[in-house]
Amino acid sequence: MEEKEVQSSVTDEERDVSPPKRFKEKCPPDNIDAEVSISQLIVEEVDLLEQPQIGVEPQVLPEIKYEYLDHTADVQIHAWGFNLQEAFEQCAMGMFGYMTDIDTVDNKGTQTIEANGHDMLSLLFGFLDEFLFIFNADPFFIARKITITSFDRDNFKIKAVGHGETFDISKHPQGTEVKAITYSNMQFHEAEDYAEVFVIIDI
C-alpha cells in the first residue's frame, strides 16, 4: 500500500517549540524541547561562572613599572607611570614586592589608607608609611594591588585602597624586611604623559 504524507494543520508558531538560533544546529528536530532546556541550563551555568563576582577585585596584577636599584646597605625603589598617581601606586607595590612574592598574594580583602603632607615628597613618604604600618601591625595586611581613589595635589592628600590579604608566613615567602621609609635622596619627576619617583627604603 502506498504511504501518503500527512501534513499537520498546526503551524510552527502554534507549536512555539523552535529553539533559539544559537541552538538550532545542535538540537535534533524530534526532541527540541528536551535539548533546548538542557542547553539553556548549561549555557546559563557557564555564563554565571564567567561573570566576575561583585565586589571582588580580579586576580590580575597591573603591569610592573618599578625596579630595585642598589644603594649602600639599603635599596632604592624606582617607580614610574603615565602620571604621578600611577607612579605612587607602583612605588607602594614595589615596596610590598620586596617583602614577599606578590604572585602568592590573593585578593581576599581590602584596606583603605589616608595620608597627607605639606609638599609632594612628604605626601609620598606618608603614603608609603601608611601601607608599611598596616603590614607591620594588625591587620598585617599585604597588598597585591594599590589603587589611589583620591589624589589631591593642591592640599597634598591621598586616599588609597590596597587589595590583598593578611600576611601568612606559611603561604607567602618571606623576603627582605622593610624597616622604614626614608627621605634620603627621595625624588619625583614629571613630564608630559610620564612621571617617576625614587624612594630609598631602610632594610
TrEMBL record:
GO terms for biological process: tRNA splicing, via endonucleolytic cleavage and ligation. GO terms for molecular function: metal ion binding. InterPro entries: Archease (IPR002804), Archease_dom (IPR023572), Archease_dom_sf (IPR036820). GO terms for cellular component: tRNA-splicing ligase complex. Residues 66-203 form the Archease domain. Keywords: Calcium, Metal-binding, tRNA processing. Belongs to the archease family. This is Protein archease.
